[in-house]
Design a protein that fits this description.
244 residues, alpha/beta, TIM Barrel, 8-stranded parallel beta barrel, 10 helices, 15% strand, binds 1,3-dihydroxyacetonephosphate
Length: 244
């Protein structure tokens, strides 16, 4: 299977930058992986105009659980599908922390995403304090059990919170250990289909550490923050992708 290299632009990208970045990606040579970019809501239509007809997909960073209604400031999954989005990131740690999103809410959003035909990328990961206490497996296992709806057919992104935007990454052995547990948890939760869902690693992935991280067993790609804001570094990560 091809790895998925997904870019999470977070709250970055004015029109000029989004146009330039999407244009550079649209003009790039094909890579041996699936590429996805998730701009802020305000730039999705612009990015879609640039990427339509290319092999690069676009998505969003969150959605509401309801299809429409009185939810001021929110965006629904059908609205994202209407813009040609094929995926949505859900339960990112920045939303869990800054917007107090719960596992139950993430699960409802994942149901809404699937109903709209979107691939849900559900993020899980431990804090530094939890890692120091040796609780990472328990934390991630609980998030998987509580955030995934029955029949989940999306993607998991393991993002240790202490590795996000810090330049620090877990060791290869640490990534391997958590991904192996996530695989076991997916199979326990979903049965046989859990064996083939992609599990991304996220947290300070850069072109110079991508080859090592993408070669780890059960790593099905990367969720990239800062390095997805430059076509050169995002594609530089994609070039390190392997078949798994
Ligand atoms: P960085 O790649 O900037 O560490 O961000 C990772 C992330 O949070 C992607 O969702």
């Amino acid at each position: 299977m091809r790895q998925l290299i997904a870019g999470n632009w977070k709250m970055n990208g004015m029109s000029v930058q989004a146009e330039a970045l999407a244009g550079a990606l649209a003009a790039s040579a094909p890579l041996p992986c699936d590429l996805l970019v998730c701009p802020p809501f305000t730039q999705i239509a612009r990015v879609a105009d640039r990427l339509r007809g290319t092999a690069i997909a676009w998505g969003a960073q969150d959605c509401h659980a309801a299809p429409s209604g009185a939810h001021t400031g929110d965006i629904s999954a059908p609205m994202l599908a209407d813009l040609g989005c094929s995926a949505v990131i859900l339960g990112h740690s920045e939303r869990r922390q800054n917007h107090h999103e719960t596992d139950a809410q993430v699960r409802e959003k994942a149901i809404a995403a699937a109903a709209a035909g979107l691939l849900a990328i559900i993020c899980v990961g431990e804090t530094e304090q939890q890692r120091d206490a040796g609780q990472e497996i328990a934390v991630v296992g609980h998030q998987i059990a509580a955030s995934l709806p029955d029949g989940f057919a999306g993607v998991i992104a393991y993002e240790p919170i202490w590795a996000i935007g810090t330049g620090r990454t877990p060791t290869i052995g640490e990534v391997e250990a958590v991904h192996a547990h996530i695989r076991a948890a997916l199979i326990a939760r979903l049965g046989a289909p859990g064996a083939s869902l992609r599990i991304l690693y996220g947290g300070s992935v850069k072109p110079d550490n991508a080859a090592a991280l993408l070669a780890v067993a059960e790593v099905g790609g990367a969720l990239v923050g800062g390095a997805s804001l430059s076509a050169e570094s995002f594609l530089g990560i994609g070039k390190k992708a392997v078949l798994f």
